[in-house]
Amino acid sequence: MGLSRRTFGALAGSTALGLTLGGSGEPSAAAASAPTGPPPKAPAADGRTHTVGFDRYSMLVDGRRVVLWSGEMHPFRLPSPSLWRDVLHKLRAHGYNTVSVYVSWNYHSPAPGSYDFTGVRDLDLFLRTAAETGLYVTLRPGPYINAEVDAGGFPGWLTATPGTARTADPDYLRHADEWLTAVNRIAVRHLYTRGTGTVVLYQLENEYADHVTEPTGRAYMAHLYRKVRADGIDVPLFHNDKGRNGHWTPGSFDTGGERGRWLYGFDGYPSPFGTPPDWGHYGPGGPRGGSTASPGTPGLIAEFGGGWFDPWGGAEFGGKGYAESRRTRDAAYERRFYLTNLANGITVHNVYMTFGGTSWGWLPAPVVYTSYDYGAAIDEARQPTAKLVPMHQIGHLLHSFPDLAKLDRAPDIDAGAPDVKAYHLVNPDTGAHIQVLRNDGSADTVAAVPLAGATVSVPLPARDARLLAAGISLGHWTLRHSTAQPMLRLAAGRQDIAVFTGRTDELTETALECPHQPAVTVLEGTADCTHRDGALYVRARLGSLTRISVHGGGPAAPLLLLLADDAASQRLWHRPTPSGPVLVHGPALLRTAELRGATAELTGDTVGEADLEVWAPRGVTEAAWNGTRLRMGPTRSGSLRAEGRLPGAGAVELPALTGWRRSAENPESAADFDDSAWRTAELTASAATTPVPAGSPVLFADDYGFHYGDVWYRGRFESAGGAGSVSLSYVTGTQGLLMAWLDGRPLGTHRMPVPDRGTVRRATWTATAEFPLPSAAGSGGHVLSVLVRRMQHDQDGRADDTHKAGRGLVQVSFNGASPAVRWRIQGEAAPDPVRGPLNNGGLYGERNGWHLPGFPDQDWRPARFPRAERRQGVVWYRTGFRLAVDPATDASIGLTLTDEPSRAYRVQIFLNGWNMGQYINDVGPQHTFVLPNGLLRTRGDNTLALAVLSDGTTDSGPGVVELTLLGRALGGVPVTRVESPGPTSPRT
Ligand code: GAL
To answer: Is 516 exposed, middle or buried (0-12, 13-18, 19+ CB in 10 A)?
Structure first.
């Protein structure tokens, strides 16, 4: 016998309506009456004022419940503003409704008082684009962020200032305020409350865990709160608590009397091999349990692992490459962990990262290499991966079924299978029941769960999960139960459409409330449909798209039931328009959908040829795809289908890289090099936390204003008679090195010992290089030239100023003599006004524009790759190449370097003057460097410059250097060229 929705609740033992609390922990009238009806429209800068609040269940936007299903991306890791739109389109299309962004202070500030938000740093443009795309924004400007960026986001210049960072030290606060003023000036223009943007949440600090109980920590947070409010940020604020310790819950610090506008948030990166943790409201409880620490605010996960970062050196050192991150945190991981989060009442859910991007230039923190692909759902080359499938399905589910924004825990159920954990929840307003079933075992199994009065069999692959629903509204229809996961519902034309998903070949049963026998037509695929107990039972094995049309039987509108396997679900695109929703099936991506009169104007991407089918509001009879009008015909599914197929992307030809020219540099090593313009190293006190040895001048580069990349030293001394060797102690980030020359002759290279698994996160690396001295050093005047590749500054994770660990030489001593040495120092030139402070270090070539397009290299000697040259020092190679990619094709292109892995050299890669990162041939693991379109002229001329640093112990390359196609689609977004001035072109 079937059960009605009303009786089901009683039988399953649903809970009573719980007390609804406001954000401050007070009962809230608005929240109690917050409708769970149709989902709110996609946000836009619509010129209207809005309210953004919350209760213990969810965010409340204009009083309506919204689950924020968010993906993290960093505009600073994609230095081509046009492509921001591409990634944001992909997020939106795949079901995310929110983008979360860190803003990195160092990226915008070359010097105290100097803030740049232009070009690739145009935060205003990013926030505008997010609003145009229909995404909410969570803004996270620090001041400290971490994100595996240099100094955790602190500018290089901050390392040379007094004042303890991340405390209430007034010297630090002065700088932090300056940054917040600059960033908030832009942020206030994009607040959803004002209708001028879509920012709905704003984070203060990040993982601030070390001064929590100290007055300085509390004063610091209180200061940031007041500052941000004084700057006009009126959306709810939160902090991201590392370790879920209940730090910074509402009421834990002074918010100036303001109540109910502060949320508790935390992050988590659980091992993909363990059991998903219960960190939400329905977890084991206790202040360390996650959301339970703050019963009055919704479950907010500011970051949940969507992959993981990877250290230099590959598997031996703990890194395994991003393919491994993507494999261990695959689609099934996402279902297991993210559905567990939802089952725990987490309704603000941000996946870090969803698009990782590139830590170009000197942006990466010492713990990572250039690629920040992260194994994320969208890869570094902007290509969708299989990890988007669950995100797409769950994102659309949350959007279609607001029941999920307000769930109470319901009595436990037995899943009837030993390894299966079952969560049972109920929406107290609608009576809808939700179950999350998770198989933690390593074998496939079948759960047998009570659902809507029946016991249903649910196939659960090993280490996988699914969400089941009962009693949710499908428009005029009501779901009794389904063993497939609901994905979306909409009304198009006269019919309701409901989509359910699962894995290919799974046998599913979907039961729809239906008092009388309806007329059922299986339009595609096979399904067995029977009417009994007041419901229509549809049994179907999933494969592509099964379509069942149901008329009559009670509900006042026909229903089109679509059962989609993963691949088919990924080709279904749902988009609201002011005249009603549109559902598109077929292409690889739907970017935009607008209704103009009788025409559905659609834009998007195809990879191969694709069908196009559209369900649209009544009166829509035509469709256009990327501006081309299509011949459409009606189908029995109530849709319009294009008569022909949409074309796929054509071939993309990439030229071989030839015509290289070569020039060696490091003239700084020569005895007679003119260093008179260099700074004299004469400081006696340093801002660094690394002690300055007694009797030594300060040699740390930051104290002299040099913050990024390589730094040169030249020390003059008179006769070091009796000295058998010289010892140079130095400090760098991981993979740093030091090279020395005496009067132009190489003394040798020392490499910082490579961290292993245990030390990879260690704060600082110091080492001492000792080189034997030739006997000639004993008399006359000499010059000791030293090049230090510093790598980057440490982060300041424990708020103890570790970003101020020194970088460069610490001390130089002669063993057996003590000549007086007069040091001069030279690092990077003034920051590139377009490419920013992190683009360049202090190599001679960089200081003299060898990396720039248009640099006159015609006198350089021709060179062919592979090279085999043994030399300590720096050699540059330059060439140009021309691309002619079809303008309608979005080709994603990388540069791949390969060589015999024992060769000890590294390469900085400059594309049109932009530093695309560092390749270390004998360390790895990265070989391919993404070249973002916009920087890369896909129709035009490009300049590549490679600065090769080799230590002279082996032959050095480059070996093979080639362009690689990383993805292609017909469609894409219009791409504006990123300004790339040469040595003489004025900034435009
Ligand atoms: C988090 C931190 C992020 C990032 C992440 C690991 O703990 O908040 O900024 O570092 O870890 O990628």
So the answer is: exposed
State the distance from the centre of ligand 1 to the C-alpha of 166, rounded, in angstroms. 17
Find all residues with CB under 8 Å of 315, minimum gap 6, and list them. 321
pLDDT in tens, 833-878: 999 999 999 999 999 999 999 999 999 999 999 999 999 999 999 9
pLDDT for the residue 770: 98
- Which residues are paired to 449 by β-bridges? 456
- pLDDT tens-digit profile of 209-227? 999 999 999 999 999 999 9
End-to-end CA separation in angstroms for the chain: 75
- pLDDT of the residue at 468: 98
Q: What stretches of 283-387 show up as alpha helix (H) in DSSP?
A: 322-328, 331-343
CA distance 620 to 801: 62
- Ligand 1 binding pocket includes 303 (Cβ within 6 Å): yes
Q: With contact defined as beta carbons under 8 Å apart, do 244 and 268 qualify?
A: yes
Strands of 773-842, DSSP E: 781-789, 808-815, 822-826
Ligand 1 contact via 148 beta carbon (within 6 Å)? yes
How many of the other CB atoms lie within 10 Å of CB of 540? 23
Inter-residue contact 388 to 71 (CB < 8 Å): no
350 C-beta closer than 6 A to ligand 1:
no
Give the neighbor-by-neighbor strand order of the sheet with 622-625. 589-596, 599-605, 622-625, 628-630
Residue 479, both tokens: 């779901």
Kindly state the tokens that stand for 370: 């250039």
**Residue minimizing CA distance to atom 11 of ligand 1:** 147
185-204 confidence digits (pLDDT tens) = 999 999 999 999 999 999 99
Dist. CA 862–CA 964, nearest whole Å? 24
Ligand 1 touching residue 209 (CB < 6 A): no
Token pair for residue 752? 């910082």
Q: Is 146 in the pocket of ligand 1 (CB under 6 A)?
A: yes
CA–CA gap between residue 957 and residue 541 (Å, rounded): 56
The residue behind tokens 């305020």 is 177
Centre of ligand 1 to C-alpha 305, Å, is 9
Confidence of residue 41 (pLDDT cuts 50, 70, 90): confident
Q: What is the phi-psi region of residue 972: left when phi exceeds 0, alpha when psi lies from -120 to 50, beta otherwise?
A: left
CA distance 574 to 562: 13
Distance from C-alpha of 72 to C-alpha of 374, rounded to nearest angstrom: 11
Closest CA to 514 of 527, 501, 500, 529: 529
Q: In 10 A of CB 359, how many CB atoms?
A: 26
Pair 926, 977: CB distance under 8 Å: no
Ligand 1 touching residue 302 (CB < 6 A): no
**What is the number of H-type helices and E-type strands within the chain?**
12, 53
pLDDT for 313: 85
Q: What is the per-residue pLDDT for 282?
A: 86
Ligand 1 midpoint to CA 185 (Å): 26
Residue 1 binned pLDDT confidence (cut-offs 50, 70, 90): very low
Q: In this structure, which residue's CA is closest to atom 5 in ligand 1?
A: 147
Mean pLDDT within 165-175 = 98
Token readout for 943 is: 């300049």
